[in-house]
Amino acid sequence: MSLYCLHCQQRCRRSAWRNYLRPEIVICFLAIGLVLLGLLRSEGSDPQQASVPGAGKAEVAIDNFSFLPKEITVAAGTTVVWTNHDDVPHVVASADDQFKKSAALDTDESFSHTFTTAGTFTYFCSIHPHMTGKIIVK
Question: Pick from 41, 56, 69, 88: most CB atoms within 10 A?
Fold first, then answer.
């Protein structure tokens, strides 16, 4: 296969590969490869769910009228800390009174509770009841 070579300014056999291996084409293929790799690595992970391997501390952010992560799995003995990053106050309350509710949390204020027994603990914001979350203690 011979095409007009951009490098030699004439017909030659090397021109086909040189045309296909231009830097912008190589960069494009590398970018596509990186995007595909990122998609494969994130497959199966849920950004709304998190797991904490051992007892210790787990964090839940309150942001944009949501608890993030919405569901978290922790070991018994773990202290969960909710921190309000919204500009409005929120109150963390157990859906079925399984733990004491927080005071109204202003911006950047936190509330914590240590979960000592296994079970599923659902909670919500008592000011904005559409905000819900779940702690699974194993």
Answer: 69
Residue 129 contacts residue 93 (beta carbons within 8 Å): no
pLDDT tens-place string over residues 87-104: 999 999 999 999 999 999
Query: 68 vs 28, 30, 80, 114, CA distance in Å?
Result: 35, 33, 12, 18
- Residue 56, SS3? coil
Among the listed residues 89, 82, 88, 57, the one whose alpha carbon sits nearest the alpha carbon of residue 133: 82
Angle, CA 112 vertex, CA 111 and CA 116 arms, to 5°: 155
Give CA–CA dist 45/121, Å, rounded: 22
Total-model pTM: 0.62
Q: For residue 123, what pLDDT is reported?
A: 97
